[in-house]
Amino acid sequence: MSKEKVELDPEAIAPTQSTNDQVLAEKPIAHDAVFGEITEGGPNYRNVGWLGTAALMMKTQIGLGVLSLPEVFSSVGLVPGIILILVIAGITTWSDWMVGVFKRRHPHVYGVDDAGRMMFGRIGYEIFGACFCLLFTFICGSGILSISISLNALSSHAICTAIFMVIAAIIAFIFASIETLGRISWLAWVGSASIIVSIFVVTIGVGVQGHPPVTAATDGKVVESDYKIVGEPSFASAISSVSTIIFAYCGTPAFLNIASEMRDPRDFTKSLFVCQSIVTIVYIVVGTVVYYYCGSHVASPALGSAGPVVKKVAYGIALPGLIVSAVIFVHLPAKHIFVRILRNSRHLSSHTTIHWVTWLGCTFTVALVAYIIASGIPVFSSLISLVGALFGTFLTFQAIGCMALYDDSKVSKTERTSKWKASVGWGVFVVVIGTFLTVAGTYGSIVDIIDSYNQSGGSAAWTCADNSSS
């Protein structure tokens, strides 16, 4: 593993038209602390600008999480919902900022597993790496599930839902196999715009409609919104709602990987604040307006909350964004595994047979596991709250808190000022609150999943039933 990183000249590592397939004849033109020699004939991993970085960050945040926020408001109420979003946004923005600081201090770190090894040795390397891959594979499972919901809504359940799941997994595998984030960052822009437009279509739709959607749950009648300023959720429901919001912000561990492919990591903070500002505004507006007009009759995902016509329109607009979510969440864990397997090897940055077999094997495996997860836990809201609690909280709170404490521990005693003490105190707080939310949130999510299966309308695993009717 390289200990130093040479700053790369973006012009020097721009893609070329070289067709030289002989690896030994490829001329190294730059060296990166993570990817090693960047060659003319190999993939250019360091080619994401700050705007592309902001788009990738937003796409890891805005997507599946925002579609469940109105249901969170339905559980905890209007005011607590807004407060929870603001609090979690604040904590996760600090975590995101800390990721950029840590990356600049330790250029050889590619993902949270490398940070885990620095802090806790081989055990930390394995645990952090496993949690990262599981988190984003589970999120990809949520993405595949949401694509099947969208296809069912658009086609009026034309074919078996299990077939839609397979189609979604195949699409995710194909596009996720594009090698570098630089080449798929434009997809992140398309995906983010698609999701934002679709949810605002629903938000405007429910406002114009002025009442909850007329469904079987309302006996086919128009009913008034039963929104509450402050809800009265059970402990399990409340903590599950917190986990769902954390899920909506849990792109944090991927930010290390994204920063590793930036042309200039010094632009990380600029990209971060663009991302977090847009994301938080969208979350609050969508959650507030949709819940205000729909109350407890809000759908999950929220795109079905404005009646059948708007539902089809919203899902039609959202489908590209849902596909991009699945693509990115296949790409990230697959790239993570790929780099781990081929790191310090010429095959990592050269188009050899071993390079392609390993890369396609990683993307196929992640897509397959995500498909199995989506088919085995086909309850959208419960699945994402479980993911948020079990893996998202750990990697967004405890892992980042430990990274901050690790760097603080290296400060000499003469430099341990009041600012240093405050930093240590905050790091300890983030680790402690994260541990509580992991345990309690996992419990709440499991209770929700069990309750869903015990209800007559609960979704079954590997079913052909229409999952877009909620």
Q: Characteristics of this structure?
A:
2 domains; Amino acid transporter transmembrane domain-containing protein; 470 residues; two-stranded antiparallel ribbon; 13 helices; globular; disordered N terminus; 67% helix; mainly alpha; L-amino acid transmembrane transporter activity; Hydantoin permease; 2% strand
Structure description:
The protein is 67% helix and 2% strand. The protein is mainly α. The chain has 2 domains: 1-47, no CATH class; 49-105 and 112-252 and 262-454, Hydantoin permease, CATH 1.10.4160. The chain has a two-stranded antiparallel sheet. 53% of the residues are buried. The model is unreliable at 1-26 (pLDDT under 50).
At CATH level 3, the topology of the largest domain is Hydantoin permease
The CATH homologous superfamily of the largest domain: Hydantoin permease
- If classified by CATH, what would the architecture of the largest domain be? Orthogonal Bundle
Number of domains: 2
Determine the strand fraction and express it as a percent band. Answer: under 5%
Total beta strand runs: 2
End-to-end span in angstroms? Answer: 50 Å
What is the level 1 CATH name of the largest domain? Mainly Alpha
- Helix share of residues? 55-70%
For the largest sheet, list the strands in their spatial order: 1-2
Q: Structural class, judged by helices and strands?
A: mainly alpha
H/I helix tally: 13
Helix-strand sequence = EEHHHHHHHHHHHHH
How big is the Rg?
22 Å
Q: Ranges with pLDDT <50 over ≥5 residues?
A: 1-26
Membrane topology: Multi-pass membrane protein
Subcellular location: Membrane
Family: Belongs to the amino acid/polyamine transporter 2 family.
Organism: Aspergillus sclerotialis
